[in-house]
Amino acid sequence: LQQARDNALREHSLIQKEVDRMNELIGALHAQIQSLQEDARVSAVTIADCSSQIDSLRQDSEQLSAELDASKSHCSGLEKQLLESKEMENETRGQLLETEISLRDTEKRLCDTQAELLGVVKSRERAFGNIERLNNDVATERERADFAESVSKEVQPLREQLETVNAAHAAALEKV
Q1: What contacts 92, CB < 8 A, 6 or more positions away?
Q2: Given a cut of 80, is residue 35 above it in pLDDT?
Q3: Phi and psi torsions of 49, nearest 5°
Q4: 64: which of 48, 85, 148, 155 fits an S-S bond (Cβ 3.0–4.6 Å)?
Q5: What is the pLDDT of residues 76-99, one digit of tens each?
Q6: How many CB atoms lie within 10 A of CB 124?
Q7: pLDDT score for 112
Q8: Is the pTM of this model over 0.70?
């Protein structure tokens, strides 16, 4: 009977140690669950911030796309003006040729022809000035269009990063 009592006490002691170990394990698991819940809350805030940033970047991208479209339209207008100026230059060159022929044909009208030639030269200088200005405007608009396009490309990796964070967050929430 004494041996059975000793055996029962030993078994009770072993069971009590196992219960104590289980209680410690439950406490550690509870702390780990709380830590995971806090991590999930932090992740939710981070995802909300990222979503806000992406929305802002999306709006910026849309605005830049609109500006790019406007710049392209403006470039088309400038190119049309440049073409018209070149046509005007060609017309001016034709007028100069006619003026030179008139000068050869008659020296008597030299003074009148010189005045006309001076007017044509001034017109040509204006045309060249317009062409140079339009070339500068076209270059500026192309730089703006290139900048808008590069910003649009830079936004894409941020969108992909948000999708990755959202997927990771969803997976973490499912585990919790």
Answers
A1: 120, 123, 124, 127
A2: yes
A3: -60, -45
A4: 148
A5: 998 999 899 999 999 998 988 888
A6: 17
A7: 64
A8: no
